Amino acid sequence: MVYDILAVNPGSTSTKIAVFRNRQEMFREDIEHDSAFLDSHPDIEEQFPFRRDMALACLEVHSYQVEQLSAVVGRGGLLPPVKAGGYTVNQAMKDRILKGPISPHASNMGALIADAVAAPLGIPAYIYDAVSSDEFMEISRITGIPEVVRQSFCHVLNSKAMARKAAEEAGKSYEEMNFLVAHMGGGISFSAHRHGKIVDALSDDGGAFSPQRSGSVPIIYIVDMCYSGKYTKAELMRKIRGDGGLKAYLGTYDCREIEKMIRQGNEKAELLYEAQAYQVAKGIGQLAPALKGNVDAIILTGGMAHSKMLTDWITDYIDFLGPVRIMPGEMELEALAYGALRILQGQEKANIYRDALYG
Ligand SMILES: Nc1ncnc2c1ncn2[C@@H]1O[C@H](COP(=O)(O)OP(=O)(O)OP(=O)(O)O)[C@@H](O)[C@H]1O
Ligand SMILES: CCCC(=O)O
């Protein structure tokens, strides 16, 4: 049986799409969004129709008839904790994303775009390995404030896909190995994979700063900023996500531009870029206890892993912990499509999303 699957991956700076015929990729497009557009449309509800239309326009460019699709699969977003694997997009999931998002994260649009394309065609819409897939150890959830519980949240899809690939290349199964993975995209996250499960992770405001995020910042100063009367909540959130990190210091989140500044002798850019590498190394080191130091490999992945300058610095700071594998870019579209294919072929069952608030 032949299945055509559209995979859609909305990231913080880009939307990537591809059509697969079973496991064969027919075509893909990586749409990098203009930073001015992202700045002027910070809300998911505003960005969603635009990104959906761009995805549909890509199909047209490739003269692909949507009626040929068997299913659409989107990146799974920041839902309340869910299982790793596939879910059918349903009303409860859409309500949660639109009315009560855990956090306004680009990945939330994956389910919405998948549903918007699939529903008129009468075909299933799925998400796979959502960012909030939860395999945490209980000890990983504890913070110093009882009301605040750490939620499992990271680039699950790509981190697991790269760890699986590294295991395959080592001639072993993912479940036999232990990995520390640093995903370095518009957002940066770290995950500790123990025998096939992400038992702890750091991301967003809990980890390193990133090209456009603040990362973890001493909270006492943030409390002062909150009560200073100088900022609205939305303005402070933008400092944490969107306008933080390298962009806050250097005015751009494009690392290729930053490397150009460095080549032109910009010392501030060089200091900040090495600080970026150092923070990534610290994030990896912070998770090493989750594996009790039994690290088969440290994987550096995501768009920024294309940068030799960054990966050389990071390796220099961290290779005492284990062998470093550089696996640039991401395999998220493949991971989405192969997951949906396993569901369509009956090898896996799609989970039913249920929500305490939205049914
Ligand atoms: N060749 C390169 N050298 C250095 N940095 C690069 C290179 N290619 C991409 N990047 C950087 O990688 C980042 C984007 O990575 P990626 O495309 O993985 O992110 P995304 O998918 O938009 O977001 P996320 O991964 O957080 O979901 C940008 O900061 C970009 O400048
Ligand atoms: C993709 C979830 C993790 C993050 O954005 O930091």
From TrEMBL:
One Pfam family of this chain: Acetate_kinase
Molecular functions (GO terms): kinase activity
Cytoplasm as UniProt keyword: yes
Highest taxon of source: Bacteria
Keyword flag Cytoplasm: yes
Principal location listed in the UniProt entry: cytoplasm
Keyword tags: ATP-binding, Cytoplasm, Kinase, Nucleotide-binding, Transferase
CDD domains linked to this entry: ASKHA_NBD_BK
E.C. no: 2.7.2.7
Reaction(s) the record says it catalyses: butanoate + ATP = butanoyl phosphate + ADP
InterPro entries xrefs: Aliphatic_acid_kin_short-chain (IPR000890), Aliphatic_acid_kinase_CS (IPR023865), ATPase_NBD (IPR043129), Butyrate_kin (IPR011245)
Subcellular location: Cytoplasm
Family under the similarity heading: Belongs to the acetokinase family.
Record-given protein name: Probable butyrate kinase
Species per Swiss-Prot/TrEMBL record: Blautia parvula
Gene that this polypeptide is encoded by: buk
